[in-house]
Every structure is written in C-alpha cells, then in structure tokens.
From TrEMBL:
One of its GO terms (cellular component) is bacterial-type flagellum basal body. Residues 306-376 form the Flagellar motor switch protein FliN-like C-terminal domain. It is a peripheral membrane protein. Residues 38-74, 134-169 form the CheC-like protein domain. Keywords: Cell membrane, Cell projection, Chemotaxis, Cilium, Flagellar rotation, Flagellum, Membrane. GO terms for molecular function: cytoskeletal motor activity; hydrolase activity. GO terms for biological process: bacterial-type flagellum-dependent cell motility; chemotaxis. This is Flagellar motor switch phosphatase FliY. SUPFAM superfamilies: CheC-like, Surface presentation of antigens (SPOA). The keyword Cell membrane applies. Pfam families: CheC, FliMN_C. Gene3D superfamilies: CheC-like (3.40.1550.10), SpoA-like (2.30.330.10).
Length: 384
C-alpha cells in the first residue's frame, strides 16, 4: 500500500512537471530563487546603473565607453571557481543609505591596469607590470565615482536617496581556498555580467556579485513591496472611524462658527461721524521743488597723496564661457574648457572690476606679463 503512494518529493516534481529530475533538485531550486520577472527587474537596475556609470567613466578616461545589456544568473562561489581560473580584482561596494547591503564588482587585472594608466595620464598600454597599490587606489576612485553616479539614477528609480561608502579594491583568486569575500563557498549569489568596451583598449566582461537576499530586497523595493508592520484596518472599522470623525468634525465646525459669530458681534462698533471733520476746509497747494541747475561746483585742492596708498586690484581676463550645471559636474582632470576669445585677440584689463584697458600677453623671464596696448576712455568703460 505504501509503495503505491507518492512521496512529497514526487508530488513536488509532478507539480513542476519535472518528474525526471527527482533526486537532483539543487539546480531547479537554484533557478527558482529568482523568477523571470525578478531577474528582469535586476537586469533593469543594472542596466540603468551601468548606463550612468559608463558616462562617468568616459569623463574620467577620455575614451568612448560602452557597457552592454546585463545578463542575470544564480550561481555560487564554487561554480565561479571552476569557470574563472585567473586572478581578478574585486571592488567591494557598501550601501549605507536607502539600501542596506554589500556587493562586489569583479574586473580583470589587465583591465584595471589599463584604467589606472589612463587615469594617470597614460595611453592605456602600460600593463606589462605587476598590479600595485596605485592601480587599486585608481580603480577604487573610478568605481567610487561610477557607483556614486549610478546611485543618483537609482535614487530616481526607487524615489528615495541612495548613497554608498567609499569602495575598497583588492585582488582575488576564485580558485583559492582562502578568498576574502562576503560569500560562503556554496551560498547562492546573483551574478550580473556586463560586456565593457573602452575605446580600442578593453573589450571584456565585468561582473557584479550580489547576495541573494540583498538582490531580492532590491526587487521588492523596486516593485513597491514595503515591509509595513501596521495591521490593515477592516472595512467595518474604517466605516466606524469615518462616522466618528465625521460627527466630531461637524461638532467642531458648529462650535467654531458659533464662537466666531459671537466674537464678531462683540467687536463690531457702530460708525461714528464727526461733523467738525466733515466741515473742516482742506487747503491744497502746488508742490514746489528746489532747482539744482545753477548749483556751484565745489572743487577740492587736496593732493592725491591722500589716497595713493589705497590698493587697487588689477585683473586680466583671458576669456569667458557659459556652461550648464550638468556639463560642469562632468568635469575632471584633463577636461578642456573653450573660451569666447580668439587666438591673438586683446585681453581685457580691469581695475577693481572696472574695464580700463586692453593688452597682450608677454613673457618676462619665467613669468607671464601683460603689455597695455589701449586705454579705454571713461565713456566706453563698462563695469562687468
């Protein structure tokens, strides 16, 4: 009799339509940790984040940057150790505001060297060397700005502020037994992989490793599933509360109107007329103004020595330009700002902010100087 009954494992397999997979449910359980909708949501989060990050990286490196649509997969550290044998660089990112959790960004060691070389003013080809602290510091700063800019996009997506702590970079080896990571060897994690292309220098994969619980939390918050411990009010309770509040409001309005009416009645005074004021004649005269046309000019003969010690700030303006705040936020080391001056055009010289002369740049020994070429007449001076 017992042999004819299905076990719970067989019932579950029949409901899933995977009777042939009985006894090997680890893979199916892993795939059920996130459904397709949740994976799409994580992909969209990664897509928006990396889209903003690519713009920031372009500003830092002055190279065209393209990051493709992400791929989401459930995996473990054991599986990663079998897929990736070479050492990598991990950047640990901790969210401190808005989201609570930690994830890892994984990049190839050579890619980190290229990015660090570009950030330090090189051409990105100096990679035939060992990874050093300067490389880790440079990639930490790059990721700090990239993830920082992506937090701005995530804040708009989640409708509240999201911020991170300064990222930390270190070298890892997935095949090593002693890995300084956040995950256990068999713990399920979410791998979000991207293809990153930087000019003609980099065309490889970067990964974002997210704890499964943190990934599920992000999806819930994106879909509006907030943890509210308050009990929902039942329809009858809501109806009773509505009646009580309606009666209370009606009583308060009636009392308030009565008090206001009595107060107004007490404060109203009957108008009193003063016949004497009405009968008083009004004297109207035309206004007379003093004339200053023939005023004598007063001159002072004191010497200019009285004020010759007062300092006057002389400023030479090379040129000006106007930019939007969005463009200014993208400025970084190496950014070139084009001014409104043409080559060879005279410079403007100001005294305490007042335009007084024009000049040209000269070199005196090792210093720059300005030779005055034209003095502006007082009638043409414009204070800028």
């Amino acid at each position: 009799m017992n042999n004819d009954m299905l076990s719970q494992e067989e019932i579950d397999a029949l409901l899933k339509g995977n009777l042939g997979d009985i006894g090997n449910t680890s893979e199916s359980d892993s795939q059920d940790a996130l459904n397709d909708v949740e994976k799409d949501a994580l992909g969209e989060i990664g897509n928006i984040s990396m889209g903003t990050a690519a713009t920031t990286l372009y500003t830092l490196l002055n190279q065209p940057v393209k990051i493709t649509t992400p791929k989401v997969k459930i995996t473990t550290m054991e599986e990663l150790s079998s897929e990736y044998q070479i050492p990598f660089v991990a950047v640990q990112v901790k969210y401190k505001l808005g989201l609570r959790g930690t994830n890892l960004l994984i990049l190839k060691t050579d890619d980190v060297k290229v990015i660090a070389d570009l950030m330090m003013g090189g051409d990105g080809t100096n990679i035939d060397r060992d990874l050093n602290e300067m490389d880790l510091s440079a990639i930490s700063e790059a990721m700090n700005q990239m993830v920082g800019s992506s937090c701005t996009s995530l804040s708009e997506m989640f409708s509240y502020t999201i911020d991170i702590e300064p990222p930390e970079a270190f070298e890892i080896d997935f095949s090593s037994e002693d890995i300084p990571l956040l995950f256990d060897k068999n713990e399920e994690i979410v791998k979000v992989s991207f293809r990153m292309i930087i000019g003609d220098l980099i065309d490889s994969e970067i990964m974002q490793l997210i704890p499964l619980e943190f990934a599920q939390d992000m999806v819930k918050k994106l879909m509006g599933d907030s943890s509210d411990n308050s009990q929902p009010i039942q329809p009858k309770e809501m109806e009773n509360e509505a009646k009580i509040s309606e009666e209370t409001i009606s009583k308060e309005i009636a009392t308030s109107n009565k008090d206001n009416f009595e107060t107004k009645e007490k404060n109203i005074e009957k108008p009193q007329y003063d016949k004497k004021k009405e009968e008083k004649a009004v004297n109207i005269q035309k206004a007379q103004f003093r004339s200053f046309d023939n005023e004598e000019k007063i001159e002072y003969n004191e010497s200019i020595n009285l004020i010759q010690e007062i300092p006057v700030e002389i400023t030479v303006e090379l040129g000006r330009t106007t930019r939007k705040i969005q463009e200014i936020l993208e400025y970084g080391p190496g950014t070139i700002i084009e001014l409104d001056k043409l080559v060879g055009e005279p410079l403007e010289i100001f005294a305490n902010g007042k335009f007084i002369a024009k000049g040209e740049v000269v070199v005196i020994d090792d210093n720059f100087g300005v030779r005055i070429t034209d003095i502006i007449s007082p009638s043409k001076r414009i204070k800028k």
